Amino acid sequence: MQIRFIHHSCFAVELADKVLVFDYFDGERVNGYHFAGRLPDYAPDTRLYLFASHSHQDHFDLDILRLSERFANIHYILSKDIRISPNFLRKHGIDPAVRERVTFVNPDKHFEVDDLEIYTLQSTDAGVAFYVISDGVKLFHAGDLNDWRMEGAGDLINGKMRRTYQHEIKKLAERPIDVAFVPMDPRLGQHQWAGMDFFLKNTDAKYVFPMHMWQDYSGIEEYKKRIPNSGMADRLMDITGENQVFDFDGLLEL
User: Fold this and answer.
1) Yes or no: is domain 2-247 CATH 3.60.15.10?
2) Do 138 and 131 form a contact (C-beta atoms < 8 A)?
3) CA dihedral 177, 129, 146, 148 (to 10 degrees)
C-alpha cells in the first residue's frame, strides 16, 4: 500500500486493486493559494473511489466528476451537502448520467459501495468524516471534523466545539484504525494541536497524517517536541511537501 499526500486534505490511498482519493480539488481553486499537488496518471481501467467530505472549495471540486470520462471504473462517495442536480450538471457541461456513479452519504450511517465498508461521522463544520474498510485496511479521514477553537471566540462557543468534537472522536475508540488523516490547522494559533492531541490519546490509530495545514508544515515538528510520550509522537507522520509518497508495504499487518 502506498499513500500519496496530494495537497491540503487530499490523499490518495493506493491499494492492490483500487485507489481511494479523499477531498481532491484543483490547486487553483482557493484564492491566495497555489497548490501544486496532482493526482498520478492512473491507468484508464483503475478502480477509483473519490470521496468528498463536504462542499467547501478546499475539499470538493466539481471537475472531479469529469474524470468519469476517462475512468470506466470510477465511483464517487459525496456528502449530501454537495448539490449536483441534473440541471446544474448540464449547465456546467457535465453529463447528468454521472449521478449513477455517485453514492450520497449523510452522518452517522453505514454504507457499502462494492467491497468498501463506509461509516460516517458528523463533522463539526460541514458534511461528514469517513471511516472506511477496504482490503482489510481501516482508514479514517476527518474532513473538517476538528476541534475548531478560535482565539477570541469565548469559552461558550469553544467549549461547545470541544465537546462536540470529542463526542464524535469517541465513536472511534473501539474501531481499529491503520491510517488516519486529521486536521492540524495553523490558523488556530495555540489551539492548532487541540484536535490532534485528543485524537491521538483516544484512538489506537497506527499512523496519523496531519492535514489542512495550508502549506505550512512547521507545526508537525513543533507539536512532536511538545509531546512527552515518544510513542504517541512516533505515530504522527512527517509531511514536508505536496506530492509526497509514503510506502506502507510490510508496515501494516492485514
Assistant:
1) yes
2) yes
3) 180
